Amino acid sequence: MVLVAEHAADTDQRDRFAGEAIGHLDTLYRGALRLTRDPARAEDLVQDTYVRALRYQNSYQAGTNMKAWLFAIMRNLFWDRFKGGRPEDVSLDGDGQFALYDTLRDPSAMPEADVLDRIAAEEVVKAVEQLPELHREVVLLVDVEGFAYKEAAEVLGVPIGTVMSRLHRARRQLQKLLYDYARESGIVHSKGDEA
Amino acid sequence: MNCKDCWEKLDRYVDRELTDAELYEVKRHLQDCPHCEDLYRLQLNLRRVVKVCCDQGVAPEHLRSRLRQILF
Fold first, then answer.
1. Backbone angle region of B2, left / alpha / beta, with phi > 0 → left and psi within -120 to 50 → alpha
2. Residues A94-102: contacts with CB under 8 Å, at least 24 apart
3. Is A136 on the interface with B (CB under 8 A)?
4. Closest CA–CA distance from residue B31 to any residue of chain A (Å)
5. What residues of chain A lie within 8 A of the CB of B11, using their CB?
6. Does the predicted interface ipTM exceed a cut of 0.85?
7. pTM of this prediction?
8. What is the pLDDT along chain A (195 residues), one digit of tens a residue?
């Protein structure tokens, strides 16, 4: 009788965990699509993420941020499966200096904010997918999923300063990609073109 | 605060990651500096547009059913 009750409690707990986890499926799938840029790989990545989550469900503390926990599993799997290992050693961050000062010293070079609204959604997605993975994943976490820097740092296993410098670089790249696209497709004319 | 100081804090301003004191400084600078205000609008819009555009689409139904079988 005690065994039956224990089994029921286990099943209950497992169902609760599964229910909460599957609630993040669309979010994870979109993230996986952006990371892998391939629907079949995205499906595999998401499925493997859930299998691993189930296996390690005891390491998840109920009431904490399950979305962040699942994202951490997924991005680690992504790097292991598709990129041949964790990226912590990749030196892409440079010195972390803010170079915006140099690039935007000239006010006339700056695009207008509403230019971005005239760019089609798929072009924005394409630009995000062109970012190097280390930059792309931080944009996904902070800009798309709305994680705080601290949460993003925990998911990525890096210091907050690294999150900030990657995010800064990623946004600058995005800005450039989108503005270049806007110019090439005639959505906006650079000031020099009018002369 | 000068423009360079402001630009260095803009990401954190857009992401609501500044301390109250920093927030106050940036806000005050933005009120006085149209160029930085433009840059701020651009940053804010970039974040919004990326969010809206990347946050579309749902997982395929066959994946959902497969996962239900695995999980439950």
1. beta
2. A94/A165, A96/A161, A96/A162, A96/A164, A96/A165, A98/A168, A98/B7, A98/B8, A99/A172, A100/A168, A100/A172, A100/B7, A100/B8, A100/B10, A100/B39, A101/B3, A101/B4, A101/B7, A101/B8
3. no
4. 17
5. 164, 167-168, 171
6. yes
7. 0.85
8. 566 666 666 777 888 889 999 999 999 999 999 999 999 999 999 999 999 999 998 888 888 899 999 999 999 999 988 777 766 544 454 444 444 444 455 555 566 667 788 888 899 999 999 999 999 999 999 999 999 999 999 999 999 999 999 999 999 899 889 888 888 888 876 555 543
> B7: domain range?
3-71
Distance of CA A37 to the CA centre of its chain: 12
- B61 contact A CB<8A: no
Q: What angle do CA A147, B8, A122 make, to 5 degrees?
A: 50
**What CATH code is carried by the domain that includes residue B46?**
1.10.10
Nearest CB to B50 within list A98, A112, A174: A174
CB atoms B47 and A54 under 8 Å = no
CB-based contacts of A54, cutoff 8 Å, min separation 6: A17, A18, A21, B70, B71
| Chain A residue with Cα closest to B51 | A144
Q: Going from the N-terminus, what domains does chain A have, and what CATH number goes with each?
A: 2-85 (1.10.1740.10), 100-194 (1.10.10.10)
Record: contact B7-A98, CB cut-off 8 A: yes
Domain count, chain B: 1
